[in-house]
């Protein structure tokens, strides 16, 4: 009996040492790009996000240093159950280390739990809900690119200050819409404005005329669109048809992506104000990256901020792994390393990851150009203002994240 | 109360799309006995053809209304000749599976090349602007959609129910051998009928292009609702599908007003209720 316990202890000790040795040399990484590959968010994330992850791996130069980095991609179809099923399979069967992108807040929050349970790494770029770094924050999660708090405190605040003090919301009826409406309402009321009404519409609605009529009847100065992707483009297009801009009401596209503007066309989209954290035509570095990206995309599309966030996130993750000297296959440990290093890349510039997992970088207020001002097929935005990261994102003092209460 | 009138009118406008699409489905099912699941994809193709005509050929919306249904109709006839005709006499399920497969392929190809967020198509200049009706602002284009669809629906109904050609058609589906004995080319008639149904779908696509985004999945989003319309109206009944199309548009519009969260499901709830009471649909005949 004593002997068997001794051998067991010895065996464990050996196993631990060999695992330590293996970690120092383990230079294999598996990245899972989980996105909406075919639905209403496929153009803003989807195959472009997988491409962005691939480019990040290539640009990291780790391949030449003997690292073996694989990327697989999956389609969550905007359904939390499908998203979590893929995530579980990736961790259990495919031995994935990190999941990136995951647009759709409903899916993103569900996957957040799986990644925490499996101790993987989660760099979310596509989802908007600020809950990912607040009430539902996790030691395994980094939220890149943008969130509903930021959208509310940039676009929302700018519009209230410009005199838009009464609001009516058109809200996508799931986690994202609810979070965006909640965060924007807080900003509107804090700045002396008032929300006079709202309507919740199902995700992926083709016709918004009924909802627009209700918004028109509310007489609110601002119609806030707490939706995204195809829902936003259809709303904007149909609002123009119902003469909403001409009637004195203003549309606030709280979340608008480059591909949405492309889809609506400048003629209808011109003059819209909104916020993004990345635009391809900001400086030489962003232009160089975007040109390379666009050449590899099947339809020649420029990268959206979501795809840019995937690139930047994966680059930073790989830097952290390199600094660790190998892949420990331990999500919490890697994310801690990521948080300890300042972020810097060609697309978002300098920034940091806060203890709650929120990445901080500049946000930019844009206005859509008139057709006469546009010089090319993707020349859409005019820069209106820059909001420094520490003002755009949730201040740590306000964060409800449990990780901060140590 | 004013808002309610406005919702009724908006419902009628959406109903005209349902009516046009379900009419095409009813024609195809009535004459060919095929449950055409590719209908949504063909509707989408109609919108895309209009987009190409405008942006590549510089051909206006008005010509697209004529040309797109013809072009997509010809595509439909090729489908019928090369694939669907082999299913004559087989169970409905085969037609459903084949057309569903065709829909997936067509949508996949478009999505691969044009992405998912779609392409812009403007309202033609002559139909821009709107009228103040007192209780709502009615975009002229939407009014045009309702009137145009009503005319097309009535014309199709008239063609099938009241003309000699329609009589041949109905006879050919009842007893093809007998009709052939009169020297009428039944297979060609079937092909033309499929082309007509497909053309109706494409026409709805052109009508919808200026209102909705021209997107590869625009048909996939709509087709399930349209099938519910056809089932409620009674499979294969021409008038049933027209009336149900408009009526369901209105009911959906009212739901968007009173309880918007349920607007995507109300049609299916109705379908369940109707089928519980009358399994053949509202105007369908027992098989």
UniProtKB/TrEMBL annotation, chain A:
<feature type="domain" description="Leucine-binding protein">
    <location>
        <begin position="28"/>
        <end position="369"/>
    </location>
</feature>
<keyword id="KW-0732">Signal</keyword>
<dbReference type="Pfam" id="PF13458">
    <property type="entry name" value="Peripla_BP_6"/>
</dbReference>
<keyword id="KW-0813">Transport</keyword>
<dbReference type="InterPro" id="IPR028082">
    <property type="entry name" value="Peripla_BP_I"/>
</dbReference>
<protein>
    <submittedName>
        <fullName>ABC transporter permease</fullName>
    </submittedName>
</protein>
<keyword id="KW-0029">Amino-acid transport</keyword>
<dbReference type="GO" id="GO:0006865">
    <property type="term" value="P:amino acid transport"/>
</dbReference>
<comment type="similarity">
    <text>Belongs to the leucine-binding protein family.</text>
</comment>
<feature type="signal peptide">
    <location>
        <begin position="1"/>
        <end position="24"/>
    </location>
</feature>
<dbReference type="InterPro" id="IPR028081">
    <property type="entry name" value="Leu-bd"/>
</dbReference>
<dbReference type="InterPro" id="IPR051010">
    <property type="entry name" value="BCAA_transport"/>
</dbReference>
From TrEMBL, chain B:
<dbReference type="InterPro" id="IPR001851">
    <property type="entry name" value="ABC_transp_permease"/>
</dbReference>
<dbReference type="GO" id="GO:0006865">
    <property type="term" value="P:amino acid transport"/>
</dbReference>
<comment type="similarity">
    <text>Belongs to the binding-protein-dependent transport system permease family. LivHM subfamily.</text>
</comment>
<feature type="transmembrane region" description="Helical">
    <location>
        <begin position="258"/>
        <end position="277"/>
    </location>
</feature>
<dbReference type="GO" id="GO:0005886">
    <property type="term" value="C:plasma membrane"/>
</dbReference>
<keyword id="KW-0029">Amino-acid transport</keyword>
<keyword id="KW-1133">Transmembrane helix</keyword>
<feature type="transmembrane region" description="Helical">
    <location>
        <begin position="34"/>
        <end position="54"/>
    </location>
</feature>
<feature type="transmembrane region" description="Helical">
    <location>
        <begin position="190"/>
        <end position="211"/>
    </location>
</feature>
<feature type="transmembrane region" description="Helical">
    <location>
        <begin position="91"/>
        <end position="110"/>
    </location>
</feature>
<dbReference type="GO" id="GO:0022857">
    <property type="term" value="F:transmembrane transporter activity"/>
</dbReference>
<feature type="transmembrane region" description="Helical">
    <location>
        <begin position="60"/>
        <end position="79"/>
    </location>
</feature>
<feature type="transmembrane region" description="Helical">
    <location>
        <begin position="141"/>
        <end position="160"/>
    </location>
</feature>
<protein>
    <submittedName>
        <fullName>Branched-chain amino acid ABC transporter permease</fullName>
    </submittedName>
</protein>
<keyword id="KW-1003">Cell membrane</keyword>
<dbReference type="InterPro" id="IPR052157">
    <property type="entry name" value="BCAA_transport_permease"/>
</dbReference>
<dbReference type="Pfam" id="PF02653">
    <property type="entry name" value="BPD_transp_2"/>
</dbReference>
<feature type="transmembrane region" description="Helical">
    <location>
        <begin position="6"/>
        <end position="27"/>
    </location>
</feature>
<keyword id="KW-0813">Transport</keyword>
<feature type="transmembrane region" description="Helical">
    <location>
        <begin position="223"/>
        <end position="251"/>
    </location>
</feature>
<keyword id="KW-0472">Membrane</keyword>
<keyword id="KW-0812">Transmembrane</keyword>
């Amino acid at each position: 009996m004593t002997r068997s316990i001794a051998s067991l202890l010895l065996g464990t000790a050996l196993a631990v040492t060999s695992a330590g040795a293996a970690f120092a040399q383990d230079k294999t990484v598996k990245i899972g790009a989980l996105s909406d590959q075919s639905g209403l968010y496929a153009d803003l994330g989807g195959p472009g996000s997988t491409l962005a992850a691939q480019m990040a791996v290539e640009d990291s130069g780790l391949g030449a240093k003997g690292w073996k980095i694989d990327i697989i991609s999956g389609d969550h179809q905007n359904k939390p159950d499908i998203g979590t099923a893929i995530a579980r399979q990736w961790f259990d069967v495919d031995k994935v280390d990190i999941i990136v992108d995951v647009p759709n807040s409903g899916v993103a929050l569900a996957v957040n739990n799986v990644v925490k349970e499996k101790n993987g790494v989660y760099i979310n770029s596509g989802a908007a809900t600020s809950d990912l770094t607040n009430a539902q924050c996790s030691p395994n999660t980094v939220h890149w690119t943008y969130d509903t708090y930021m959208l509310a405190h940039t676009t929302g605040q700018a519009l209230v200050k410009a005199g838009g003090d009464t609001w009516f919301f058109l809200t996508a009826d799931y986690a994202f819409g609810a979070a965006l409406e909640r965060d924007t309402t807080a900003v509107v009321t804090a700045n002396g404005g008032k929300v006079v009404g709202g309507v919740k519409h199902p995700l992926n609605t083709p016709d918004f005329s009924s909802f627009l009529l209700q918004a028109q009847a509310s007489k609110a100065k601002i119609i806030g669109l707490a939706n995204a992707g195809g829902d936003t483009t259809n709303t904007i297009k149909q609002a123009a048809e119902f003469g909403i801009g001409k009637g004195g009401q203003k549309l606030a596209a709280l979340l608008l992506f480059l591909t949405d503007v492309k889809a609506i066309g400048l003629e209808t989209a011109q003059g819209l104000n909104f916020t993004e954290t990345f635009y391809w035509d900001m400086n030489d570095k962003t232009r160089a990256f975007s040109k390379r990206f666009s050449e590899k995309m099947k339809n020649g599309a420029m990268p959206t901020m979501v795809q840019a966030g995937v690139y930047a996130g994966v680059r930073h993750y790989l830097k952290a792994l390199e600094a660790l000297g190998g892949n420990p296959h331990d999500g919490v440990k890697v994310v801690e390393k990521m948080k300890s290093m300042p972020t810097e890349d060609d697309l978002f510039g300098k920034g940091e990851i806060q203890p709650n997992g929120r990445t901080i970088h500049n946000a930019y207020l844009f206005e859509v150009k008139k057709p006469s001002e546009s010089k090319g097929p993707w020349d859409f935005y005019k820069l209106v203002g820059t909001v420094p990261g520490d003002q755009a994102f949730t201040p740590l003092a306000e964060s409800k994240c449990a990780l901060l209460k140590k | 109360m004013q808002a309610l009138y406005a919702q009724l009118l908006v419902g009628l406008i959406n109903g005209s799309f349902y009516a046009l699409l379900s009419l095409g489905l009813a024609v195809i099912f009535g004459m060919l006995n095929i449950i055409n699941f590719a209908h949504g994809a063909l509707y989408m193709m109609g919108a895309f053809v209009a987009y190409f005509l405008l942006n590549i050929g510089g051909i206006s919306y008005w010509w697209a209304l004529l040309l797109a249904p013809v072009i997509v109709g010809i595509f439909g006839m090729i489908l019928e000749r090369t694939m669907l005709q082999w299913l004559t006499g087989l169970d409905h399920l085969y037609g459903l599976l084949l057309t569903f497969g065709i829909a997936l392929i067509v949508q996949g190809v478009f999505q691969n090349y044009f992405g998912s967020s779609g392409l812009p198509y403007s309202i033609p200049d002559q139909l821009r602007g709107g009228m103040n009706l007192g209780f709502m602002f009615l975009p002229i284009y939407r009014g045009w959609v309702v009137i145009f669809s009503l005319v097309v629906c009535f014309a199709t109904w008239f063609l099938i129910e009241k003309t000699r050609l329609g009589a041949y058609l109905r006879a050919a589906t009842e007893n093809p051998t007998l009709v052939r004995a009169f020297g009428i080319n039944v297979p060609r008639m079937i092909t033309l009928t499929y082309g007509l149904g497909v053309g109706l779908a494409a026409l709805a696509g052109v009508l919808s292009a200026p209102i909705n985004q021209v997107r590869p999945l625009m048909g996939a989003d709509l087709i399930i609702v349209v099938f519910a319309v056809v089932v409620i109206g009674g499979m294969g009944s021409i008038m049933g599908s027209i009336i149900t199309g408009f009526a369901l548009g209105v009911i959906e519009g009212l739901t968007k007003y009173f309880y918007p969260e349920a607007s995507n499901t109300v049609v299916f709830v109705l379908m369940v209720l109707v089928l519980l009471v009358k399994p053949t649909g509202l105007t369908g005949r027992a098989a």
